[in-house]
Design brief:
The chain is 20% helix and 26% strand. The chain has a six-stranded mixed β-sheet. The protein has a six-stranded mixed β-sheet with strand order 16-13-17-21-20-18, sandwiched between helices. Strands 22-24-23-25-26 form a five-stranded mixed β-barrel. The longest helix is centred in the last third of the chain and has 19 residues. It is elongated and about 95 Å long. Bound molecules: adenosine monophosphate and magnesium ion. The site of magnesium ion has 6 residues, from loops.
Length: 429
């Protein structure tokens, strides 16, 4: 028998029962909003282990421990200008002998009385000096220095001197655990001698797509088949995150195959993402296959469009499992809105980072419509100007071409209409 033809089970009472079933969604929602579901999920997630990592390889990773300054910044009083170090009390003299030079990176000589020393930006202030006059305000003649009268009248004690510790005192907090190692963080770590910061290890994400109708995007589908686009969408969403490794397997709609694949994935996955097979269809086996693997369901169904049938679960050791409804736009939206924060929490970046701002930016819609629905509504939008976006005409959660014209989506609460502003979630990072 060809795989596509399934045995007819005979009439009986089932068709009658189906006709009598209410047409409303069968989901009862454990949480009233996506935000509350995310908060509940994050509370169960355990971050991966941390270990020291060479600073040269640490870009983009997440700091696992607070970093403190090993010494003041700047370490000593230094000049903020190229010029001359002198004593304010001597300033009335018409000119000064140039007694020598402060070599940058070296201990400075003592400033002789009634004289000045050449100094460059970053040079240590010589003992006895209390001002720096910048070179532009001076003239030199025969090893003597004259300061312009205008500059003289402006000079104040401490002029152009950066005081030791004025940026940060020794032992102060430089950056906190949970911060991604951005270029400026890497620079600060280097400056304070953190050669091997403690960072959370990379996270392994396993993506399991499901569906008998799917072929690889490399293959030619029959008229009845579809190319799998969800695995590529998730890869494109997650791979740019510098600490994420992503692997994909496809499973047919068979409960024991699914259960085995989930068991196998859970031997290595830090977070498990599934697509499809999580709704109410008679061949949607994902929820049962997860339960068979002791994944605890925190929610199955959220009051949102798209993505209503989403299942959020947790393993006994605190790894997130998200089963995303299979429609390509549902996958994009629910992955961005719900799976990404869960993955970041597992990666140790849960507290709100450069990657996942706790407060999404807010956009005004230039073409709002008046179509309230009773769900949280994620609507694809295209950015038009700073702070503004337009709704994209999207036919359904299967309209991935519509989503491809959008830059991301805005989230409207139930019954909300109008221009907003509404929180905006870009597709990518
Ligand atoms: P499901 O959630 O399994 O009922 O799937 C909902 C819809 O999404 C169906 O039309 C599927 O064919 C489609 N779909 C499911 N998985 C994928 C995938 N990996 N790539 C593209 N379309 C998919
Ligand atoms: Mg399916």
């Amino acid at each position: 028998m060809p795989e596509c033809i399934l045995p007819f089970r005979g009439p009986g009472i089932l068709p009658v029962l189906i006709l009598l079933m209410p047409r409303e969604t069968p989901f009862t929602f454990s949480f009233p909003s996506p935000a509350e579901a995310i908060t509940a999920l994050l509370a169960h997630i355990t971050p991966v282990d941390a270990a020291p990592i060479p600073l040269e390889q640490a870009a983009g990773r997440i700091l696992a421990a607070d970093v403190r300054s090993d010494r003041p910044s700047p370490p000593v009083d230094v000049s903020a200008m190229d010029g001359f170090a002198l004593r304010l009390a001597d300033i009335a003299a018409p000119d000064f002998p140039i007694a020598g030079e402060v070599r940058i990176g070296c201990e400075p000589p003592v400033l002789p009385l009634n004289a000045c020393l050449r100094i460059v930006t970053g040079g240590a202030i010589p003992p006895g000096a209390d001002i720096v006059v910048k070179r532009e305000d001076t003239t030199e003649h025969a090893q003597r220095l004259a300061i312009s009268p205008a500059a003289k009248s402006r000079l104040r004690s401490g002029e152009f001197i950066r005081r030791s510790g004025e940026n940060l005192a020794a032992g102060s907090l430089v950056v906190s655990a949970g911060t991604p190692i951005t270029p400026s963080v890497a620079s600060a770590l280097a400056a304070f001698g953190i050669a091997a910061p403690s960072a959370y290890r990379r996270v392994n994400i396993v993506v399991l797509t499901t569906g008998d109708e799917l072929v690889s995007f490399n293959d030619t589908p029959t008229r009845w088949q579809l190319r799998d686009s969800n695995s590529i969408a998730l890869r494109a969403l997650l791979s740019p995150i510098p600490f994420v490794d992503c692997r994909h397997l496809h499973i047919r709609d068979d409960q024991s195959a699914m259960s085995d694949a989930i068991a196998n994935a859970l031997t290595s996955a830090d977070a498990l993402l599934l697509t499809g097979g999580v709704s109410m269809g008679h061949r949607d086996f994902v929820a049962d296959a997860l339960a068979a693997n002791d994944v605890r369901t925190l929610f199955h169904g959220l009051p949102q469009r798209p993505g209503k049938p989403i299942l959020g679960g947790i393993t006994s050791d605190g790894r997130p499992v998200l089963a995303l409804p299979g429609n390509p736009v549902s996958v994009m939206v629910t992955a961005r809105r719900i799976a990404v924060p869960a993955i970041l929490a597992r990666a140790g970046a849960g507290g709100g980072t450069a990657l996942q701002s706790q407060a999404p930016s807010q956009l005004q819609l230039t073409n709002p419509d008046a179509k309230p629905i009773d769900l949280w509504w994620h609507r694809p939008v295209r950015l038009t100007a700073p702070g503004h976006a337009e709704l994209i005409d999207s036919k359904s959660s299967g309209d991935i071409a519509g989503a491809a014209r959008a830059d991301g989506f805005v989230e409207l609460p139930p019954q909300a209409t109008g221009p907003g502003p509404w929180p905006f979630y870009p597709w990518g990072f």
